[in-house]
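Bumping with the actual sequence this time:
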Amino acid sequence: MSTRSSRIGILDFMQSAIDEYFFSDLGSPSIFYLVRHGESVANAERRIQGHSDYHLNDQGRNQARSAGSWFSDKKVSQVFCSPLVRAHETARIIAAGAGLPEPIPYGPLIEVNVGKFSGLTLEEAKQRFPVDYERFMYQSWEGVSDAERCASIAARARTVWAMLKDSAIKNGGNVLAVTHGGLLQWLVRVTFGCTSWMPLLTTGNCGVFELSVMPTKPGKPAYIHWKEINLIPDDGTNRIEPVF
């Protein structure tokens, strides 16, 4: 790669980075809450979901109600969610429990497209697609031939951040987005400039990720701080390990 191409690549990254400069136009302190949906029927069966649509089970609804109690004093002004039913249902339960506005479905918050692994357990994927599974074990979804690529997921994550920041600017207060484990990882990863799946983050059902943003001076970089990573509001139930 030429020096000029390298500089263009670095410039493109800097312009799209979700960093202190990205938040420099935020007018007041804001907290961005990202939450994974509650446990679904497929989670309980250890099935990989992707774009497949599954409802919450009873435990997932209990988790969402506990999250609703946790959010009751967090001064959230708007709630967004993935259009998939497990995330939309989680968001509705949280909003009702915390007295928040009705959630707004937002397409880019949808889960990663996991391709041929959709609906399978990991053991089933290993048996049916051994070559893809072997790559999956060290590349995550980048190793599955028809799954969504890292570049696409990262671009969606940046689109989501632009929307969340715009909501904070226009409406004031804090913002909540309910999404999925795969995309949630990238919503965090893009704030650190990551370009691949590794290392992975644990994303438990109804795990809360909290990014605090404090403006400094107009046009100057903001102070940004990940205050919580995968905080689980206590609902008194046992949880299975995340599928991925």
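The tokens above came from a reply further down the thread. Strands lie at 30-36, 76-81, 104-105, 174-179, 208-214, 223-231.
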